[in-house]
Amino acid sequence: MAGRHRLLLENAQQLVLVCGRGEEYLLREGCASLAVLRGASLVVGLDGRIKAVGQADAIRSQFSGATFERVIDCSGKCVLPGLVDAHTHPVWAGDRVHEFAMKLAGASYMEIHQAGGGIHFTVEHTQKAPEEELFNTFQHRLERMLRAGSTLVECKSGYGLNLETELKMLRVIERAKKSMDIGISSTYCGAHAVPRGKTAAEATDDIINNHLPKLKELKLSGEMHVNNIDVFCEKGVFDLVSTRRILQAGKDIGLQINFHGDELHPMKSAELGAELGARAISHLEEVSDEGITAMARAKCAAVLLPTTAYMLRLKQPQARKMLEEGVIVALGSDFNPNAYCYSMPMVMHLACVNMKMSMNEALAAATINAAYALGKSDTHGSIEAGKQGDLVIINSSRWEHLIYQFGGHDALIDYVIVKGKVIYQNERCGTISSY
Asked: Which among 361, 307, 365 has a CA at the least distance from the CA of 337?
């Protein structure tokens, strides 16, 4: 196939497709045998889409007359899909390292929250922070996520709680969408906590009557396109009635439902999400058996956050039961001032060790299933012709090292590629050959 193309990856020891037949997601049975090619190559076109995947000699023959902007010899290396982080809170000001010491001394999440810490501490600092400062720190965090292999990240607002600051955060996210290579799915999370001086009912009315109409207006004018709506459905925060009202109002203006549920107390959030047609529900440490069944039936993804359960010493989410019941299990880092982790390889490791997921299940959860949770598994999450050329190349002959080497991704990842462009290159890799 003659013509010019953006990228050729040649001779990969393992090319981990994850899916090979256009699957939207993988359930437990599908994870048992991930699609992996050996001695394989792939081509990404000038449009950033994967043009061909196959055995190295077949690709070389098919593209014998072609030229490439870049060629990378992947002999002895593994190529995987770019990782997808399905849950983060990366726009904020106000460091909370002091709260880590409180947690280590035995203070619970809600005790810190009720003492004026937690979300409220970050809200106070984020409200005061200039937009440029928020953008600069957000950009730095996204760059660190990229270097750890994430090429698509869900990014929430939620440290504003008033309309002005929520819009400031969403403008920062929108700006990054347009100026950075990393993929972003943006989430309005104005119902992250009840603002000081308001009741939950008053905050709910404010969101429905003021915040959401403004988002709709900005969408129609083309100034801002938010993808998801989130609510922290929790005892002492937003109850089931308020959560239902906010999520339905968001759905009515075209937002995907993707919310926090059943984290600290059993709230029947999973049942509510399944009923409302939620795309995904996060946390679920306290989910009921009925909620698991409802999510499986509704094809509502469970975004599990092993870093949060680990750092807050919570009960681990029931990943095995969810997988066995047919739930679509995805993973997220929950990056925020309360759970400071940029690295999806570390998240996958924790999912395997603490939640008893297999490495295959963890990789599917951090690629195709996380993409599904964001409504993007048609373009992201696997290495298939027609999908976006988002890729990670690791310096190992077995892909499992990305999970096995806990904290080792800095040395292991050679290249991170978005739309066929090398966005990050490990300094030991030298220059990239082209012809």
From this structure: 307
As beta bridge partners, residue 256 has 228
Q: Are strands 83-85 and 150-156 parallel, antiparallel or unpaired?
A: parallel
In whole angstroms, what separates CA 404 from the centre of its chain?
A: 20
**Helices 119-128 and 163-179 sit at what angle, rounded to 10 degrees?**
80
From first to last of the 435 residues of the chain, give the pLDDT tens digit: 779 999 999 999 999 999 999 999 999 999 999 999 999 999 999 999 999 999 999 999 999 999 999 999 999 999 999 999 999 999 999 888 888 888 888 888 778 877 778 888 999 999 999 999 999 999 999 999 999 999 999 999 999 999 999 999 999 999 999 999 999 999 999 999 999 999 999 999 999 999 999 999 999 999 999 999 999 999 999 999 999 999 999 999 999 999 999 999 999 999 999 999 999 999 999 999 999 999 999 999 999 999 999 988 889 999 999 999 999 999 999 999 989 999 999 999 999 999 999 999 999 999 999 999 999 999 999 999 999 999 999 999 999 999 999 999 999 999 999 999 999 999 988 644 332
Delineate the domains of the chain, giving CATH numbers in brackets. Answer: 3-22+33-81+382-425 (2.30.40.10), 83-374 (3.20.20.140)
Q: How many CA atoms lie within 13 A of 390 on its CB side?
A: 26
Question: What is the C-alpha R_g of the chain?
Answer: 21
Is beta strand 50-55 parallel, antiparallel or unpaired with respect to 83-85? unpaired
Cα 386 to its chain centre, rounded Å, is: 21
Q: Which residues pair with 392 in a beta bridge?
A: 80, 416
Token output for 214 = 């403004």
Burial of 214 (0-12, 13-18, 19+ CB in 10 A): middle
Question: Which residues partner with 394 through β-bridges?
Answer: 78, 413
What's the pTM value of the predicted model, to 2 decimals? 0.96
- How many Cβ atoms from other residues are within 10 Å of residue 209's Cβ? 10
Q: Which of 247, 305, 253 is nearest to 277 (CA)?
A: 247
